Amino acid sequence: MKNREKGHLRTNIKFFRDVFLLHPYRLFALRATISMGILAIPFIIAGLPYFGVTLALGALAGALSETDDHPKGRVKSLSITILSFFISSFSVGLLNNYTWLLGAGFILSTIIFILIGGIGERYRAITFGSILVGIYAMLGVEISPAWYWQAILLPAGALFHGILTLILIFRNPWRLLDQQMASGFRALGNYLEKKVLLFPSHKEDQEDINKDLALLNVNVVNALEAIKNVLNNYAREMRNTEPLNRYLQRFMLLQSLHERAASTHQRHDKLGNSNEQIEILEGFGEMLRQLAYASRMVAENMLTGTSYIHPPALEWISKAIDDKLQTMPVEEAQDLILLHHNLHRSHVSLKYLDNLEEGTSIPRLRHDERTPFQRLKEQLTLRHPRMRYALRLSLTFALGYILQIYLDLDKGQWVMLTSLFVSQITYSDTRRRLFERLLGTATGIIIGAALLQIFTTTAAQVLLMMGSAMAFFYWLRKKYSVAVIFVTTFVLSAFNIISNDGGINIMIPRLVDTLLGATLSFLTIRFLWPGWQYRRISGLISTALEKNRNYFQAIAKEYKEASNDDLKYRIARREAHLADNELAQAWNSMRQEPKSKQRNMENALTITYLNHALLSHLSALGAHREANMVNYNDIESLFRQIDKKMSEAGKESTIQEEKFSSDLSKLLMTLQQQIRGTEAGLKRQQLRLFYNIAATTSKIIDELKRTSTL
């Protein structure tokens, strides 16, 4: 009997691990739904549905305002959240009878909240939640038993959810950091999985694969940024930061794995000119597949606490490739040796995951030394994207508020609610959100109307409301259009519980208000600082080339004398990847813009592709900086020459001249001669890396020339 009970327990634990622990979004959705259910259901049973639903809305807003903080930081964030929610809802109740004063106050507070949110991630979620609570308060003030009840219920709902979350966090204070770290390793696993397609590959297939890799690279770099921010948040709240060492080590490991993964030593179609080379390339592909699997296993280890088991296949695949390389003619093997070294180092780093002696060293992190006031002050200019966003959103609210009054819209506050979710900082993001919101709302209304005909009892509608809430939270960070469907069914069922047939009656007004809010958001960003990407591309290219050059200089310093503290090197590498990300995202956004604004799109794509290729070659050079393969004195002049040309290319990307001074043909010819005159081996492979960097820089210069003549 006891064995059977233990078996059931193990089965249940495994089920919980597989369904929730391995999927943080599901766990987040479950936690938020439980807190909403605990608040709403007793009041609904007691015949006080307004109180229950309002408390649940407060919990919903509180869940959306969560920050990735150390438990002590979460206490501070929760305090600020509750205070902000109270001020927002209290002001709405107090000024409800003063229509224009309420509108002016809400619009002004929106600008203030958005700018405060720009100070940091901790404030961004809180201020968004505060604006959301203000709109919720406007929606519910007419049916509130007294003007002050929402100022009590909405913050109370958020407080209850916050306390429940804090209890769980204090039981496992490292969970938030584990989740961010796991997200980074999963993003790396996806990148590696896509790179498998290059081994082997044909030239005509590589462009599409590399485009996908550039976009997947954005996810990895963003994940690294998120991890760094959470690590700094934890470090600020801890007196003794020694327990952070394990996470710092894994953060450093993730960075080094990413640098090697992003490396490109040679064009992949040039590597497979013989059957033996193709066979080795297939082995590299399998190594990458196993490294992707290993990265996901590290993520699972972070999320569940299960032991990390290094894939045994990596050991024998790496050994088989090495044996094969030893038997090949040196001339054929030389281009593959560095690539194998790169993958082998990644395998060894993962094998000794938490071994301080064999594994990755513990890094020092850079902290943002700007004060909150300095960060706020930087936004106080019309050139800053966040200030423009604040003004656009407040204008959209103002127009929506005026329409609500003069057209006497039923539940017209939904116009502003839609604008809050649709309006984004960029045109492309706003356009995408607009279609997702409209499609999701229309679909949700159809589904909700059908379900309300089926779920006619209060108990059934409570189940529908709770199920919709959980589905909304789950899909919110995965696919927004699906999340909108479920938040619509949530709203319909909630209003139906408060007032019989209330959900049915608000379907058409909600659809009309959604259409109005989405239209206002689109028109506002279309004509007020749309920020067309073609105007930004030149500056982004210049920045990317400058950051690549800084990265190249940092690599040169590491080759000259390897440092014990490579913080400056990692900062240069990080900034190069962030600049590459911005360029890739700008090109991707341009595709969503009107055809008339897609100027020089092909050139932008080419330069974006070439910049990522240049960064890949630099990563290859940087990944081998610890190998000391050649004497620095032998390559110092190459570093200087390429550095000079990269500097000139960066200047020419912003100064459109008839004649471009940067010409790398002489340097490329010199490198070709040196490669031919050098015996096969590490020195020759090193020269090939320099040649690839110089050749890609030359192609960027040629493309800049072509752009300047258009």
TrEMBL record:
Location(s) in or outside the cell: Cell membrane
Pfam families, sorted: FUSC-like, FUSC_2
Organism placement in taxonomy: Bacteria, Pseudomonadati, Bacteroidota, Bacteroidia, Marinilabiliales
Residue ranges annotated for the Integral membrane bound transporter domain, each copy included: 402-523
Transmembrane segments: 47-65, 100-118, 125-141, 147-170, 389-407, 442-474, 480-499, 511-529
Database matches in InterPro entries: Memb_transporter_dom, YccS_N
Protein name (record): Uncharacterized protein
Bilayer topology term: Multi-pass membrane protein
Keywords (A to Z) from UniProt: Cell membrane, Membrane, Transmembrane, Transmembrane helix
GO cellular component: plasma membrane
Integral membrane protein YccS N-terminal domain span: 78-331
Family, as annotated: Belongs to the YccS/YhfK family.
UniProt keyword Repeat present: no
